[in-house]
């Protein structure tokens, strides 16, 4: 099954050029054809439209916006990295050759460093803290830094708390990470944290990970359960360790060039539908996180949960990254978020 997925990604990648150059091409993700559309919004996403929680959130956005605009606005969804990887899709938004994308906050930090705050190890411990920060003033302030790079940040969906899979050994202690060749996202805090924990991290685009795990050029990767399942990583890994070492939001964004072409009324409608889809998507992700974990256990991956003692050791070891990246994040911003989290009971 996953081999077909890789093939579809390759075909999709070839389509990228034609699609981005001609603005048309094979649609996927249940794109309905509504001929009276005055505006068509193309959305690129790195995971599947039908099975991943991010894809389900995008389908909800499409349903809401097409319905509430009475078909005046049509949404076309392109999943599985058909339109490129996270970084290239973000660059396409800056150029205005792609309208919208949903991608992890970690690669976004290459464009605006404020997003680095979300990569701090063990920043969040539960979803109450997550929703409080992402939907509050601090989260909005970080979204608004995208304006400096010609992008409008609409809201945050949820990728989730990240866990570690590997093909070598059960990870019961932080020492078990020693020398493990682990893929990380292209993000300096992720790289630094895993280096401090003794692993041997390699940054890599998401759509290259499955092959690297299957060919054993990498031992490990880390992602939320829903993605480990949706991308089929469990098929090439023996062990899954519940560590929740990072929390990754998805950032739902629209090209400034596309945004400027919308009427004020359509801007308000796009924002409203994005916010409603966000609530739905987070609920779906939290449900699928548990559901997909059980499915992976049934498929034979060995699951263990890191003890609080080991997690405290990992927190202590990775503490220096908070100081090291405080300047990039913005010291004031970091302190406001840490205070906000500390007040949430
Ligand atoms: C999907 C990626 C994925 C992320 C990663 O496009 O790269 O590991 O967790 O969600 O953004």
How many E strands?
A: 11
- Total helical elements: 15
Bound molecules: D-xylonic acid
Shape: globular
- Estimated structural class: alpha/beta
Could you give the distance between the termini? 43 Å
Approximately how much helix is present in the residues? 40-55%
**Mean model confidence by pLDDT:** 92
Q: What sequence of helices (H) and strands (E) makes up the elements?
A: HEHEHEHHHEEEHEHEHEEHHEHHHH
> Which ranges are low-confidence, i.e. pLDDT below 50, for 5 or more consecutive residues?
20-29
The percentage of residues in β strands lies in 15-25%
Strand order of the largest sheet: 2-1-3-10-4
How would you characterize this protein structure?
The chain has a five-stranded mixed β-sheet, with helices on both faces. A four-stranded mixed β-sheet has the order 8-5-9-11. It is of the alpha/beta class and 345 residues long. It has helices spanning 2-22, 53-68, 86-95, 105-108, 127-134, 137-144, 188-196, 209-214, 225-230, 256-261, 264-298, 308-318, 320-324, 326-329, 331-343, and strands spanning 39-45, 73-78, 100-104, 151-161, 163-166, 181-184, 200-203, 220-223, 239-242, 247-255, 302-305. The protein is built from 15 helices and eleven strands. α2 (53-68) runs antiparallel to α11. Bound molecules: D-xylonic acid. D-xylonic acid (TK8) is lined by residues 46-47, 86, 103-104, 159, 185, 206, 223, 227, 248. D-xylonic acid (TK8) binds next to β3.
Topology, element by element:
Layout: H1 2-22, E1 39-45, H2 53-68, E2 73-78, H3 86-95, E3 100-104, H4 105-108, H5 127-134, H6 137-144, E4 151-161, E5 163-166, E6 181-184, H7 188-196, E7 200-203, H8 209-214, E8 220-223, H9 225-230, E9 239-242, E10 247-255, H10 256-261, H11 264-298, E11 302-305, H12 308-318, H13 320-324, H14 326-329, H15 331-343
Parallel strand pairs: 1-2, 1-3, 6-7, 9-11
Antiparallel strand pairs: 3-10, 4-10, 5-8, 5-9
The structure holds D-xylonic acid.
């Amino acid at each position: 099954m996953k081999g077909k997925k890789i093939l579809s990604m390759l075909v999709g990648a070839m389509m990228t050029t034609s699609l981005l150059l001609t603005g048309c091409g094979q649609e996927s993700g249940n794109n309905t054809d509504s001929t009276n559309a005055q505006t068509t919004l193309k959305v690129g996403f790195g995971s599947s439209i039908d099975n991943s929680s991010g894809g389900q959130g995008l389908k909800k956005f499409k349903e809401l916006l097409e319905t509430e605009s009475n078909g005046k606005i049509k949404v076309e969804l392109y999943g599985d990295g058909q339109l490129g990887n996270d970084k290239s899709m973000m660059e396409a938004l800056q150029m205005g050759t792609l309208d919208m994308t949903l991608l992890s906050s970690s690669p976004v930090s290459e464009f605006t460093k404020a997003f680095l705050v979300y990569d701090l190890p063990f920043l969040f411990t539960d979803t109450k803290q997550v929703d409080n920060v992402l939907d509050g003033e601090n989260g909005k302030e970080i979204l608004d830094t995208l304006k400096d790079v010609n992008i409008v940040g609409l809201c945050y969906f949820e990728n989730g708390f990240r866990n570690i899979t590997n093909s070598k050994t059960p990870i019961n202690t932080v020492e078990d990470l020693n020398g493990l060749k682990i893929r990380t996202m292209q993000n300096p805090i992720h790289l630094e944290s895993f280096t401090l924990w003794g692993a041997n991290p390699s940054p890599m685009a998401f759509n290259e990970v499955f092959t690297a795990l299957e060919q054993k050029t990498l031992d490990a990767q880390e992602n939320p359960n829903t993605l480990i399942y949706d991308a089929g990583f469990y098929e090439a890994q023996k062990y899954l360790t519940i560590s929740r070492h990072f929390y990754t939001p998805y950032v739902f964004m629209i090209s400034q060039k596309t945004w400027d072409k919308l009427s004020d009324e359509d801007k308000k409608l796009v924002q409203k539908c994005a916010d409603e889809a966000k609530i739905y998507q987070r609920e779906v992700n939290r449900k699928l996180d548990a559901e997909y974990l059980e499915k992976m256990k049934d498929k034979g991956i060995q699951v263990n949960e890191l003890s609080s003692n080991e997690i405290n050791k990992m927190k202590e070891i990775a503490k220096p990254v908070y100081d090291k990246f405080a300047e990039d994040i913005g010291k004031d911003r970091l302190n406001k978020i840490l205070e906000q989290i500390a007040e949430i009971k």
